[in-house]
Amino acid sequence: MEYGIKRLDDLPVSLRLISEVHAILMEGVRGEQAAPGEFRHRQNWIGPTGCTLKDATFVPPPVPEMNEALDQLEKFLHKDKDLPPLVELALVHYQFEAIHPFLDGNGRIGRLLIILFLCQRGILNKPLLYLSAFFERHRREYYQYLLDVSQQGAWRQWLEFFLQAVVEQSGDAVGRARRLLDLHRDYYQMSIAKRLAPMAGQLVELVFMRPVLNARVVQECLKVTYPGAQKSINTLVDQGILAEITGGKRNKAYAAREILAILEEETPY
């Protein structure tokens, strides 16, 4: 995601960008042997683990038709349209998932495509909309709505489902952002009230960007000595902002648990 967003400075959302992001995504993870960064050269299918092509729930287009569909998808992305951008995005996401152009990683790339699209269009300036959580909570409905478009042309139902995902996850993102801002204010006021050293105050700012870190990370980010970095960490540990999470004597790592709790809590929907 970080690579893709930075790449948008030079390259719009396109087949080239999608393949570049796929190559990075598949490094060292499941599917890394499945042609990272390359659109598939053989048939794939979707269904229960171990199923054959005959028993598949959904069969994406064969390679020649896949290439034609990818060409049409890219043209659609670059064409001026009289469509609300979120509706356009719902169409793009469905079409990518239906084409299923990679041997593995299609779902992950399809969800990354949502963020890249929104950032390119200037609708988001940070990747704050996490639709994957909604799709995971409603996994069965998500797959069924996609399948219904392919089998029955049920576009309206898919569009309503996708837009509901945007509504809920936008509200969730705003709520988390407000709680993080409140926590940031509390930490800032505490650092003033207790007259923490300036370096410790800088570390308070850093933990909101890097809620899990170690002394080496602090040293590099704040441009301080290693002992100075460790001293600032110890100060925030004493204040209850950071907690050591490895339990070892060396290579210690620390987490800002209150920040992580806000980021990781279940969405109340």
Describe the structure.
The protein is mostly helical. It folds into 2 domains: 126 residues, Fic-like fold (Orthogonal Bundle), CATH 1.10.3290.10; 94 residues, Orthogonal Bundle (Arc Repressor Mutant, subunit A). Helices cover 60% and strands 2% of the residues. The chain is built from 12 helices and 3 strands, in the order αααααααααβααββα. A 3-stranded antiparallel beta sheet has the order 1-3-2. Helix 4 crosses helix 8 and helix 9 crosses helix 11. The longest helix has 39 residues.
Please write out the topology.
Layout: H1 2-7, H2 15-25, H3 63-78, H4 85-99, H5 106-120, H6 131-137, H7 139-152, H8 155-193, H9 198-207, E1 212-213, H10 215-222, H11 226-238, E2 243-244, E3 254-255, H12 257-264
Antiparallel strand pairs: 1-3, 2-3
Helix pairs in contact: 3-4, 4-5, 4-8, 6-8, 7-8, 8-9, 8-12, 9-11, 10-11
**The top level CATH class name of the largest domain:** Mainly Alpha
Structural class: mainly alpha
Number of helices: 12
The count of β-strands is: 3
Q: Specify Rg, calculated over alpha carbons.
A: 22 Å
How much beta, percentage-wise?
under 5%
CATH superfamily membership of the largest domain, which one?
Fido-like domain
Assign an overall shape.
elongated
